[in-house]
Write a structure and sequence with these properties.
The protein is built from ten helices and eleven strands. The protein is α/β, with parallel strands linked by helices and about 240 residues long. The strands form two sheets. Strands 3-8-7-4-5-6 form a six-stranded mixed beta sheet. It has a five-stranded parallel beta sheet with strand order 2-1-9-10-11, with helices on both faces.
């Protein structure tokens, strides 16, 4: 990722989740600028539903993000055979005690492509106000689906100094649609020259918010985003 050297890249993830991306950028010679636009907070009703889940009555638990994985992990017995556990991507898989199925294409649609047909019961652990693609797709595949939202994203406001520095950067990374929408709340439609989205769903959310997306990472991971950004800068030269 030599083409990232000397570039300043804005990381918009929650503050407690930005360190790994910052380390990758630094190792590539770039300067990470952490500008948290969202924070992850518990949804008490969803946390209660999760804690009281009857695992014996469930065929699958589907986890859509590392945030959901960390909250669901205490329920998942590493040595048990049921319920089976599915993850939308490798980062989510890594946060789970075990995982029986992970999407090859790391997205809701990618998981639907490899998920078996019902009948049976599936619990989807996702953020409050999450996109309905996965739940609706599982219904269409014959499953009885319960969605549980033990967390939600909340917008945060960066300082004036950080706002000025962000607009002067070379690129900005969006790992979720909520971060893209939070950006517009703070900055309007002004962005650095290059806008990177972690996948098609995040790209669509950013575009719906009025942003122009320069790069869409096919690999739904922070490393994948940086590879895609590096290629963009290489091609530009």
């Amino acid at each position: 990722m030599k083409s990232l050297a000397g570039r300043t890249v804005v990381v918009t993830r929650a503050a407690d989740q930005a360190a790994d991306t910052a380390e990758l950028l630094t190792a590539s010679g770039a300067t990470p600028l952490i500008v948290p636009l969202i924070e992850i907070v518990d949804e008490l009703a969803g946390m209660s539903m999760l804690a009281n889940l009857d695992l014996t009555a469930i065929d699958w638990i589907v986890i859509t993000s590392p945030n959901g994985a960390r909250r669901a992990a205490p329920l998942i017995d590493r040595d048990a055979a049921t319920p089976k556990v599915a993850a939308v991507g490798s980062a989510t898989q890594a946060a789970l005690p075990r995982c029986d199925l992970v999407a090859t294409t790391q997205s809701a649609l990618g998981l639907l492509e490899v998920f078996p047909s019902g009948p049976g019961r599936v619990v989807v652990v996702q953020a409050a106000a999450a996109d309905a693609t996965l739940v609706e797709g599982l219904h269409e595949r014959g499953w009885t689906v319960t969605a549980i939202s033990p967390y939600r994203t909340r917008s945060t406001a960066p300082s004036e100094h950080l706002r000025a520095a962000a607009l002067a950067a070379d690129a900005v990374l969006f790992a979720s649609g909520s971060a893209a929408r939070a950006w517009v709340e703070v900055f309007g439609l002004r962005t650095p020259p290059v806008v990177v989205a972690i996948g098609e769903q995040t790209s669509a959310a950013a575009k719906a918010a009025g942003l122009k997306v320069s790069v869409v990472s096919a690999d739904h991971s922070m490393y994948g985003m940086l590879i895609a950004l590096s290629r963009y800068f290489s091609d530009a030269n």
